[in-house]
Design goal:
single chain, alpha+beta, six-stranded mixed β-sheet, 14 helices, 27 strands, disordered C terminus
């Protein structure tokens, strides 16, 4: 039974598998590798995932959710049709869709996956990701840091020694790793990142610039209209990948506005975002102890790394070669698939070794409230370290050890993982009674703690916390979510076309709206009456061609030739 690799992304997700001696990306219902990480709900309980749901960000914004990866493990809840959902719930629907697509592609059941996470995800976020996998019916024993996955993919088949930085800039997160690789060993030297910096932030500053230039108050727009502006901002940003200047016409509140942007102006309005990019780069170089001239290159991956302004900024920042991966959207998924093959010890990659590191320090709180690290950030995994602590008061009877993850010098500002307490200490003056605390941390994020004081020995394993849910509660939630059905393959395409048509209707001028409404009516009439599969497919193709024509031409309607919309086959 195949173990698949999954890149669970903020903007898009995709799956891969090692098969026939190579990594294969798994296509979805639409024959595409990228599935938008968007979930939408119908009142009857049907759930849309991917392209259909993405269209509904504009047509049904109150019950459609995206970018929920940023809230993994936070307890934040989303509300739709009388029910609440966590980011783990929403992610589980995406994982379910990828699982079903993989089963269709491979022709067998899929029950296990390796999932990638941002290197800077803390324990809560990692455990929430594992829980999302369980809610999707997947066993997730292993998580892998996204840039570590890219490093595996990049070094596979390379024999020479190389040192490089992975700059993984996605839709919602930035991950950076400094890697030293030689022979079959990929060794992560340092990691850093920003869980709240991604391509979506550029969409938002472009939208804000549009509001400012057109004297529009965002608060006076409906959610649907705000969605239209954000979507056009994203399209404009993508157009700037291939040209230095772009403009879009935005139709909202029965009025047409112009959205314009150059790469230079994007740099100007994005100053703070670029400054935030530089901070984790500086941190990984400092943490690694290397100098810049020891680093061979910086590799750009992630969909947002395709922005020329990002490459331009990094070249101005570092005096090293900056190269873009040949498949920046798919690199993480390919690497996760390789990690799954290594885990299963199959294929030519079974002998590759990934030496990953601890992204956050692990330690305890001491008498003055400060944080005392036992395992330091960037220690190579698996690792084991011991520190000795003594009583701070005369005749102290107990010693309490709160276990924290993080790098703030104030313990309580870090993430609390658990608490251990040694009781019944011998009545001695302060400093006389000692406790040896040993932390052992493995590649799966399992923290094994042992405390020895005199004849007392305490042991505790901290692993896969359930984010406040017991096993019984998780099973109950699993049953509830499984009761909600994902749309079928044919329904996916039909709903996608209808949602796309409705979205274009909202974005268009009155003459084009009339044309779209006519095409929707024709489409619905045929789909309701016709059961012949060939006719239904042809009807879908017809509507798809019409909508593509609208999308291609919708920004040039002044003087636009309306005969373009005439249907040559209408009288047949």
């Amino acid at each position: 039974m195949a173990v698949i690799g999954i890149d669970l992304g903020t903007t898009n997700s995709l799956a891969s598998v090692w098969r026939n001696g190579r990594i294969e990306l798994i296509p979805n219902t639409f024959g595409e590798y990228l599935t938008p990480s968007v979930v939408s709900f119908e009142e009857d309980g049907e759930v849309y995932v991917g392209k259909v749901a993405k269209e509904r960000l504009i047509t049904a914004p109150s019950v459609t959710f995206a970018e929920f990866k940023r809230n993994m493990g936070s307890g934040y809840r989303y509300f739709a049709n009388g029910k609440y959902y966590t980011a783990e719930d929403l992610s589980s629907f995406v994982l379910r869709r990828l699982k079903e697509d993989a089963e269709t592609y491979l022709g067998e059941k899929v029950t296990e996956a390796v999932i990638s996470v941002p290197a800077y995800f803390n324990d809560d976020k990692r455990c929430a990701t594992k829980n999302a996998g369980k809610l999707a019916g997947l066993n997730v024993e292993r998580l892998i840091n996204e840039p570590s996955a890219v490093a595996l993919k990049h070094h596979m088949g390379v024999e020479e020694t190389e040192t490089f930085i992975i700059f993984d800039f996605g839709g919602g997160t930035l991950d950076i790793s400094l890697v030293d690789a030689f022979d079959n060993l990929v060794e992560i030297q340092a990691v850093s990142g920003d869980n709240y910096l991604g391509g979506k932030d550029f969409n938002e500053i472009i939208a804000e610039d549009f509001y400012k230039n057109n004297h529009i108050s965002k608060g006076n727009l409906t959610k649907e209209e705000q969605g239209i502006v954000l979507k056009e901002a994203e399209v404009l940003k993508r157009e700037l990948t291939d040209k230095d200047k772009s403009e879009r016409k935005v139709y909202i509140q029965n009025q047409e506005y112009m959205m314009q942007m150059t790469n230079q102006h994007l740099i100007h309005i994005g100053t703070e975002l670029f400054k935030r990019m530089s901070m984790p780069i500086r941190r990984v170089i400092n943490d690694s102890g290397m100098s810049v001239n020891e680093i061979d290159k910086l590799i750009l991956v992630g969909g947002s790394s395709k922005m020329p302004v990002v490459e331009q900024y990094l070249k101005s920042l570092l005096d090293i070669s900056v190269v873009r991966d040949e498949s920046p959207d798919e690199s993480v998924a390919e690497g996760v698939g390789i990690a799954a093959a290594i885990k299963e010890r199959v294929g030519d990659v079974k002998d590759m070794i990934l030496a990953d590191i601890c992204p956050f320090s692990l330690g305890t709180e001491i008498y003055d409230g400060s944080f005392s690290p036992i395992i330091e950030r960037n220690d190579t995994l698996p690792c084991s370290h011991t520190r000795e602590y003594v009583t701070v008061e005369d005749y102290q009877s107990t010693m309490t050890f709160p276990i924290y993850q993080g790098d703030n010098m104030i313990a309580k500002e870090n993430l609390l993982l658990g608490t251990m307490q040694v009781v019944g200490l011998p009545q001695e003056p302060r400093g006389k009674v000692k406790a040896r605390v040993t932390f052992m941390y493995d590649i799966n994020g399992i923290l094994d703690i042992q405390i020895v004081s005199g004849e007392q020995s305490l042991h505790k394993v901290i692993m896969n916390k359930n984010m406040g849910l017991s096993e019984e509660e998780l099973e109950a939630r699993l049953k509830q979510l499984r009761g909600m059905t994902l749309s079928s393959m044919e329904d996916e395409n039909i709903h996608y076309l209808l949602e796309k048509a409705q979205r274009l209707y909202q974005e268009s001028t009155p003459p084009v709206r009339a044309y779209i409404a006519e095409q929707i009516a024709r489409f619905r009439a045929i789909m309701m009456q016709e059961r012949n599969a060939r006719v239904r497919r042809e009807t879908c193709v017809h509507l798809s061609v019409c909508l593509e024509a609208v999308e291609r031409n919708k920004f040039d309607f002044n003087g636009f030739d309306e005969s373009f919309f005439e249907d040559d086959n209408e009288e047949e």
